[in-house]
Amino acid sequence: MKHPHQRDDLVTLWGRFVSSHDEEAREQLILNYSPLVKFVAGRVAAKLPNSVENSDLISYGIFGLIDAIEKYEPERGFKFETYAISRIRGAIIDELRALDWVPRSVRARARDIENAIASLENRLNRTPDDSEVAAEMGISLKELQDAYTKLSYTSIVSFDEIWAPNADRDEQSTLASIIKDESAPDPVAAFESEEIKEILADAIEKLSERERTVVALYYYEGLQLKEIGQVLGVTESRASQLHTKAVLRLRARLHAAHGFVA
User: I need a labelling partner for 83 at 20 to 30 A (CA). Which of 91, 101, 126, 136 fits?
Assistant: First the structure.
């Protein structure tokens, strides 16, 4: 089977598949875009324990790629790769959730931090610092920092899950729909409501400068945490902590805005 390298070949394949769901065209599209699965699986694997096999993540991601191909609408003029990456990541995370590999105690600690941040922001009308969050939770600052570290290495703390972690991926908001790319249209934005986008944009704006930088570099520019650490002049561990804190703060704000905080 010929691998479709040329853009003209891809346009032809999409045309065949969309018009008649041609099985051979579908297989060639999967083959052409399969490197995306390896890329996303590698990104996810970097945040998981060594016990999770990368080959398993790739197999989960293939289902996301197939789902993306089935639901993509070329006539919209959006870039398939960006749309597919969101679907692939979602499929991997869905499967990991089903396996319930993250300890319940870790999930509970993340919820406690989110709730503390949301409660403080409602009372103070500003972003609380770590010492205030620790006091609200009744723990020491070191315990809170240890929790950030544990969360960054044992759980998938993803911006793409902030709004509706249990919703279908069509209903989730992603960073790509918030940070504007002047050079190309955003394929994910077409699937998001204006209300959610406005809430997310406002929440991002209220992050600290470093947290906004980490979020932008990680999700929009596609940098690894090690590379982000080099940009900021901090260790990879510190960059990971900043990423975790940013996502927890965003989830707290969004959940509080819609009355979801316990």
Answer: 101
